[in-house]
Structure formats: structure tokens, C-alpha cells
Amino acid sequence: MAELGPFLEVLLGGLMSGVLYSLVALGFVLIFKASGVFNFAQGAMVLFAALALVRLDEWMPLPLALVLAMAIMVAVAFAIERLVLRPLVGQHGLILFMATIGVTFFLDGFGQTVWGSNVYQLELGIPSTPWFLLEGLFPGGILVSPVDVFATVIAGSLVLALSVFFHGTRIGRALRAVADDHQAAQSVGIPLNQIWLIVWSTAGIVALVAGMAWGSKLGVQFSLSLVALKALPVLILGGLTSIPGAIVGGLLVGAGEKLAELYLGPLVGGGIEYWFAYVLALAVLLVRPQGLFGERIIERV
Amino acid sequence: MRLSTLARTLATTAALALLAAAPAGAADTIFYPHLVYRSGAYAPNGIPFANGVADYVAMVNARDGGVGGARIELEECETGYATDRGVECYERLKTKGSGAIAFSPLSTGITFALTEKVPVDKIPLQTMGYGRSESADGRVFQWNFPLLGTYWSAADILIQHTARISGGLKGKKITLVYHDSPYGKEPIPVLQDHAAKHGYTFEAIPVTHPGVEQKAAWLKIRQTRPDFVFLWGWGVMNSTAIKEAVAVGYPRDKMYGVWWAAAEPDVRPAGDDAKGYQGLALHPSGADYAVHKDILKYVYDAGKGAGKREEVGEVLYNRGMIDAMLKLEAVRTAQKLTGKTVVNGADVREGYAGLDLSAARIKELGFEGLVTPLKVSCADHEGARKARIHQWDGKKWVFVSDWIEADTKYLRPKVEAAAAAYAKEKGITPASCP
Amino acid sequence: MIYRETGQFRTSYAADQAIFRLRQDRIGIALVLLFAWVGVPLLADDYLLRAILVPFLILAVGAIGLNLLLGYCGQISLGTGAFMAIGAYAAYNLALRLPGLPLLLDFLLAGLVAAAVGVLFGIPSLRIKGLYLAVATLAAQFFVDWMFARIGWFTNYTPSGSVTAPPLDLFGWLIDTPLEKYWLCLAFACLTAIVAKNLVRSRIGRSWMAIRDMDIAAEIIGIRPMTAKLSAFAVSSFVAGVAGVLWAFVHLGSWEPLAFSIDMSFRLLFMVIIGGMGSILGSFLGAAFITILPIFLNQAPALIGIELSTAMVSHLEFMIFGALIVLFLIVEPHGLARLWQIGKEKLRLWPFPY
């Protein structure tokens, strides 16, 4: 029993940080599904959104700041779609990927110019002292951080909202149609440009939510944009096109890396959290090249 | 290859134009290169330090017209805490004006790279409170000046303090959470060595750059429950560590940061949760020293401040100020020794080697209470090795200990051994000191 | 008018297979080489040599390495920095553990070590493609970063984890002035360029291009994807490894794993994309562009007399850098090399375009 307590605790902690990875990965998947763009700038968007929110919050009440930050993210999405993606329509996926790296640099610089480069505290009023569960069962109990629980709840409701949006609304159906086949969708009268705008805006809002969750945990600062690098293996693990894949991938990576760090780390000198997710993704890819939930890649000559 | 040639020619022209654009009448100015990072992951800590330097230099220029009749020309160069950018900045600035007086890279990585270059270019490297610990041995590291204390001194002071407050460290557990870079690794040998001597168990947990991923580290700390956690972080890693400590319920008053992990940007993002967090202090914080009055009067009242008025007096701001002051004092000493007004790097090295900051001189400079007297010698380039412990009370830093001096008798042989190994590897003949 | 090929007949196979088939090109390249070997040393000052030209040449070598893989074989890699790191640390350890090893042999062996590791991390490319592969190569990047930071043996247990290059002793000739370093790097750059240029015109290079253009079709016409892909990984990593040794030994002198972090990989990727995928010339153009741009952006405001704060300059640098990349991709997705190509085509007809 003494061994089980810490194990459960790490597992739980890992799953919850996994949810945060999923949040970032979700933004990637949304855009990749609908426009075939591997949006490296998702991390920068998370940073930008969080910075906007936290700085606006200094001036106005939180709900208002939230709405305004959302509007800003839609504007950013609009600008990216107009200025970057539309001129590049029809280019190879690699070129589009590179372009989003360019966008990343731009947003990193722009965000710091407009909002500053200090560490800002995002105060959402969540208690930061941990809860201890099942103290009767395990010595010391199982530690759960309310911030993590909050992030999990947010992520969960976001995923729920997104699936309702995708499956229950007209726009959602159009989005899925575009994802399946651009040309066919266009030929039945779905306006592609509008759809892309909607997708990018949605991704912007997902970025804002992810920024909120990460920011309340770590404080809002430049390094937040590096969470994109954490989300990449999640994405690959789950499959580039699958929303459930992003969620499951995130949970797997989160729990896996924390457990690995704790139980395997001491054997090799620690710090394996840094690459564990990537090597895990690599191993999965060798067996399933399209990721766990990705669509099978069929090639024709 | 043709276009690349074009690019080269362009670069040449640009460089030439730049040389031409440099102030022609450099007769009575000295050139103060300043490597900074005002953007990126380490900006929260880089900015106040850079402002402290910039404001102090501006104040000296405005109040005294420079040092010993020589105006100070300060130029910043953004390194982003990256070694290769730092090297580029160094190469660019080292020959500007009448030659750079000294460099302070504010990065242990850049310090390592520049340590190889400064003896060739004859420019001293002032690494106040950081850099290579063995460079305190001036006989081998003739151009390095880790003034006020190295990381080995810092580790020793922390051990002394924790041993004192807990009545001996026998059977205790100490965990070091460190930035996985040359900076964070510096204290490990001393902490390990002390472990055997004092009988505590020592564990070191690395945190990968930039330090936002620490969950696993802190879950481990929750399990092992060390008696003390030492934090050797920089930038966003520090505030993240405090937040994660809160998240796993590790008491903040058992955490000790090195002097680079105990400033306002480290505790503020954690809000009230940071209360009780302690750290080393090379100097007090606060803006009520004589020198601040001059800075506010000559720089901020003239609207030329580098930062916000209310940020004057923060820990890292004061440290930047002290860093600049020490450099300019070395220049002044060099002027005295050589009789020249415009001194170059080689002269300033002599100035550092002869730097003797007495209490009277410190008072004259307006730093009374901020720094303790320090005397550099040919063999000892550290000058002083004292620090206090301060604690964050939610609003400001409060001292909780008196000055603690690192144990020279214990550290010096280690420094000399490491320096000798370096000298052997590099084929350096140590200078003989009187 | 000047750039005319009229009257130049290729009368032998050798002439037809020459790299530069036009006399003007040959003269041009000779002039460029002459300028690089003799002119630059006469004109350039220490700063230009040490802070711009040496890094430029080394990164050009690295960019050629990546270009062989990405531009010619179509395998995207975000882990070039890792292979550079392998080269650097291999050279360090070889020099440390085998005293008396000649410098060039040390470089060569380090390159071979990098090539071996490259093949290892290239194996997934047999199964996975495109963006999936890009992320898989990131695994190499992060694993290697970690390995050199964490496993003490590689850094000879230096407490700080930062290692120092031995003196550069080339057959008794101590390379320590900026000029000598420049020549050394130039020699490596020229050599790499020639070898790479010839390699991509050879059988193996053509098999790479076939794989790049369509791997299934290539397989059908009898190219073994395994040999082609893994050889591309090997050659590319070898070149990257050599670039890594140069970066560590010649440029930095003392380094830590962070010197070869993912930033380095991205930088090389930008060089290849901006310079032009599948072009050796492009690697040089891209390297020049990416090396000089930040330095230029840093100094430009001062040159035209605008006083900007350092923070502003560095933020602007990010923004302009990002914007330029996007702009480049929109205007000319095939990079600077393609622009040069277009210029040459125009020049051939000039001034009588009919």
C-alpha cells in the first residue's frame, strides 16, 4: 500500500499535465484537419493569447478581458489566414509548415513588443494549496492540485463543446466536409475561405483556453510558447487528424513521462522527461505510422 | 556563390560604414560594452539587471562627467542568453571605441566561451557572483574576475547556514534543483563533497532549459521529503519552481535559492504563495541608499531612466548597479596606476588586480550598506565571499541572517586544484604572485 | 551579351559532364574563389572574419548537410543540430582519449560517428514520412541534448558540463588567428560543396531525387528505398557532424549542449528553405542570409540614425525575421537559388530577348 500511494499520485499528476498537452495539441489537430496545415504557431498563439488576457486583466474585470482577448485571437486568426495562408494556397505541406514557423517568430516578437516580456501572474482565484485525498488509505494521502483539476475541467468542457460544435451544428458539418475533401466540399457550395477563418478562430480560442490553463499554473511568460514542442509528440502519438487522438495522446504522454521520470529516471541520471514523449511517439510510429487514431495513409502511384 | 560574395561585400561595407559612424572623437571616452538579454525566456531577470547597469552609468556620466575625466560610452548587445550570440556580441564590441574596458556576460555559458578568448584579446572578464568557480585563482585565470563570490562560495554559505539553523546536518536530506547548464552544475561538486563531511544525503535534480517542466522533479521531492531544497535556477525556472513547490505542498521556508534565484521576478508570479521563500543575498534590496538618490535625481528626474521609477532598488537592479560600480572602480584604479585617462582592457585588468574597495571609498560612492569592503589580489580574484540570507515576506525581502563568509580554508585548495587541472589541459604556466 | 553560350560547343563527354559548362560560369566561380581565398583576407577585419564569415561558412557546411537530406532526398529533419552535436562531442572525445590523433583524422572520424548515429535515427524514415518523420527526428534532437548534458563520460566528467576544444594543430601548424580559422573553414566549405555537387549528380544522388519525387515510383523502377534513404541520412549526418566539429572547435572554442539545441536545427532548416531546397548554391545563400540578417537588423536602426532600445531591436528582429520567412515563401518558395537561376536565364537573352 505504501508503494501504491505515490504511484497513484504521480499517475494522477501526470494525467492532469497530459490534459494540458492535449489542449495545445487540440489546436493543432483542428487546423490540420480542416486546412491541411501543420500549424507550428499554435504554441506562439497560446503565448500571445495568454499575454493578451493577463495584460488586459490588469485594466478591466476578468470576463471583459476574456471577451476582448477572444476578439484579439479572432483578429490574429483572420490576419494569418489572409496574409499568410491565402497567398500560399496549393503549396506543398512543408512550405505551409515553414510559413507557420515564420508566423511563430513574428508572434513571439510581436507579443513581447505589445505585451512585455516579464513574468505575469494570471490570477483566476483558484486556490493553490493542494488537496490530499484518501488520507485514511495512504500515508500522506494522494496529492491533487486544484489548479490541475481546474485545467482538467476546462479542457474537458472544451472538448465537449467542440464535439457538439463539430457534430451538431451546420458549420460543424461543413467543417467536417472540408476536412474530408476540399474540392468536393467547395463544389457543393461550402465557402472554403470562410470555413478556414472559422477554424483558425476556433484554434485561436482553444489557444486562449490553453494559455489560461498553463498561465494560471506557471505564470505567463515567453517560455509558454515552448509548450508547442511538448504538444508535437502528443499529436503524432494520437494521429494528426484525430481529436480523441489528441486527448488520449496527451494523457498517455503526460502519465508516461512522469512515471518514467520517477521510476526509470534515477537509473539513467534523470531528466528523461525531456525526451521520453518523443521516443514514445517514435516507438508507436514504427508500429503504426499514422499514429494511434490517425487515418490510414493510402498511397497511390 | 556570386550572391554570397555580394552578401559578403555588403557585410564589409556595412561594417566599414559602422566603423565610420562610430564617434570619431574617442579621445576622452572609454567604451563600456554591455551584454544583455531583454527578450526571451530569461528576460524577466535580464531586464532589471541591465537597467541597473544602464542607469548607474548614465548617472556617473551626468553627475561626474564620467570616470576620471573619461566619458563612458555604453552600448548594449542582446545575447538572448545564447552562447553563440554572446560570442558574436563580444567580437563586435571588443574593439569599439578605444577598446572595451571589460565584459560581463551575465551567463555562465558565455563566460566559459569567453574565458578562452579574453587572454588573447587582453580584455578582463568581470563575472560578479557567477562564472567558473575555479577562476577565483588569479594565477591561472589572469583575465577572469568572479568578484564578490563564486557558486562554490554560495554552496558553502548555504551549507553553513542550514547547518547552523538545524543544529548540524547529520542524517538530513538536501536536494538541489538546478538549471541543467554549466550554471546549475557549478555547485554540485561542493555540495557532494560537503555531504560526506557533514553526513547528509545529497540528491541533485536537473531541470531542462528553460525550466517550465518541473512537475516530475517536485513529485519526487514530495516523496523523498528533503529537509532542505536548494534552488539553482534562472529566469522563469525560479517562479515555476516556487509554484510547483506550492502545488506539492513543500514548505517554502525550507527552500533556499542561490542569489540568482532570490529576486522579485522569481517570487512575484507566485503571489502570496511565495511567502517564506528564502535565498542568498549578495547585497540588500531597496532604494534608500545614497546612490539611489543620485540615480533618481540625475537620471529619472531627467526622464532618462532605463526602466520604471518604482523598479529602482529591486534586487537585480541593485546588483546591476553594483556590477557597473565595480567595473568603473576598476577603471579608476587602472587610471591611477597607469596615469592614462583613456584606459583599455589590458590596463583595466591591472585595475581589477589592484582593486581595493575600502569602507570609506564605499561610503564616498554612496554604496554604504550595499556592499562590503573587497580587496582583489593577484592570486585571489574573488575579492570577497560573503552573503546573507533573505526571506520574502510577500512584499519585500527581509534579512534573516547576518553576513556569512564562505570557508576559504576549505574552498581554496579545491579552487587551486581545479585551476591547476585547467592550466595543465590548456598548457598555461600559472603566474607567480608575490 | 556577356553571358552568352553561343559558340561554346561541348565536344567530349568530359566537357558535357563538367559542373560548370559555360566559360562565363567557370570564370565567375574562379573569380569568386580567388576573392574568397585572397580578396577577403586582404579586406576583412577581425570582427568580420570571426563573427560573420567563420560562422557563415560553418553554417553553410551544415546547411549543405541538411540540404542533401531534405532538398535532394526529401526527408525532412528537425534534428540537424543533434548530428552537429554528435560530431562535436565525438571529436572532443577522440582528441581527448587518443592523444596525438591528427586533427583532420579526428574531424573525419567524428563525421563518421555522426553518420552512424544518423543512420540509426534514419531508420524510422523507412516507415514514416513527411511531418510524422519531422517529429520523429525531433526525438533525435532531444535525446542527444539530454545525452550530452547528462552522461558525464561524454564531457569527461567536467563538473560544469561545458567542454573546451583542444588547440587546433594542423600538422604542426597552430590555427589560432581569425584568418587561419577562416581559411580552414573556407577549405572545408569548398571541399564539401564540390563533393556534394558531384554526389548529387552521381548514381546515388539521382536515386535520392527519385525517392524525393515519388518514393513508390522510385521503388518500382528499381531503386532500393532503404539504401537510398539511409545513405542520404548517413551522408547528411556526416556533413552535419563535420560542421558541428567546426562550430565547436573553431567558432566557439568552448561549448555546452545548448549550443546545438533545437534552435540550431531550425536555423539550418531556414537556411535550406530560404536558400533553396535541392541547391548547393542555395545552401550558401541561405546561410549568408540567416547569419547576416540578425546582425544587420541589430545594427540597421543605428546606421540610419534611429535610437531604439535593445529590447525593441530584439523584438523587431523576431518580427522581421518571421515576416521575411513568410514573405519569401509567398514570393519564391524555391528560395534564393531559384531567384539566381531566373536572373541567369534573363541574362542569357539580354539584351536581345528573342
Question: What portion of residues of chain B belong to β-strands?
Answer: 5-15%
Order of helices and strands of chain C: HHHHHHEEEHHHHEHHHH
Helix content of chain C: over 70%
SSE ordering of chain B: HEHEHHHEEHEHHEHEHEHEHHHEHEEEEH
Helix content of chain B: 40-55%
What gap, in angstroms, lies between the N and C termini of chain B? 57 Å
Major β-sheet strand ordering of chain C: 1-4
Q: Largest interface, and how many residues on either side?
A: B-C, 57 and 61 residues
| Overall 3D form of chain C | globular
Description:
The complex is a heterotrimer of chains A (about 300), B (about 425) and C (about 350). Chain A is mainly alpha-helical. Chain A contains twelve helices and two strands. Chain A has helices at about 5-35, 40-55, 60-85, 95-115, 145-170, 170-180, 180-185, 190-220, 225-240, 245-265, 265-270, 275-285; strands at about 130-135, 140-145. In chain A, a hairpin with an 8-residue loop joins strand 1 and strand 2 (about 140-145). Chain A is globular and about 65 Å long. Chain B is α/β, with parallel strands linked by helices. Helix content of chain B is about 45%, strand content about 15%. The longest helix of chain B is centred in the C-terminal third of the chain and has 24 residues, at about 315-340. Chain B is globular, with a radius of gyration of 22 Å. Chain C has helices spanning about 15, 25-45, 45-70, 80-95, 105-120, 130-150, 180-200, 205-215, 215-220, 225-250, 260-275, 280-305, 310-330, 335-350, and strands at about 165, 170, 175, 255. In chain C, helix 3 packs antiparallel against helix 10 (about 225-250), helix 4 (about 80-95) packs across helix 5 (about 105-120) and helix 11 runs parallel beside helix 14. The radius of gyration of chain C is 21 Å and the shape is globular. The mean pLDDT of chain C is about 90.
